[in-house]
Amino acid sequence: FYSKELQGVGDVVTPVTPDDCTPVWHLYVIRTEKRDELWEYLKTRQVFAQVHYPIPIHELGVYKDTLGKKYAGKLPVTSKYAKQILSLPIYPDLTKEQQQHVVQAVKDFFKQ
């Protein structure tokens, strides 16, 4: 539902799912250059999105001390995307009406 409804909305990039696959979403993660602004706006609309992985693994704790030296500056796309990803609400009891509310809030944000 989200993938179809969010196509062409602002600069939102939705997950790509092959036509012959049916995903079982654990997280539904979009990307946008306006992640932080959208996140704050969604809160005002009672949409509780999350940033689940704000720091790339190669920049975390022990990994930074070990892998970070090897990969420092070599994963620019990973570092960029970490600042753009936002998980929209998704769980088994999420109703169609609630999904529509989420979508409308995202659309309204980009209409501002």
If you had to describe this structure to a student in words, what would you say it looks like?
With 112 residues, the chain is mainly alpha-helical. 43% of the residues lie in helices and 7% in strands. It is built from 5 helices and 2 strands; from the N terminus they run αβαααβα. It has a two-stranded antiparallel sheet with strand order 1-2. The longest helix is centred in the last third of the chain and has 16 residues.
Assign an overall shape. Answer: globular
Overall SS class? mainly alpha
C-alpha-based Rg, rounded: 16 Å
Number of helices: 5
Tell me the span between the first and last alpha carbons. 23 Å
Tell me how many strands there are.
2
- In terms of DSSP E residues, the strand content is 5-15%
Q: How are the SSEs ordered, and which strands pair?
A:
Layout: H1 2-5, E1 28-31, H2 35-44, H3 61-71, H4 76-82, E2 85-88, H5 96-111
Antiparallel strand pairs: 1-2
Brief sketch in words of this structure:
Helix content is 43%, strand content 7%.
Descriptive tags:
mainly alpha; two-stranded antiparallel ribbon; 5 helices
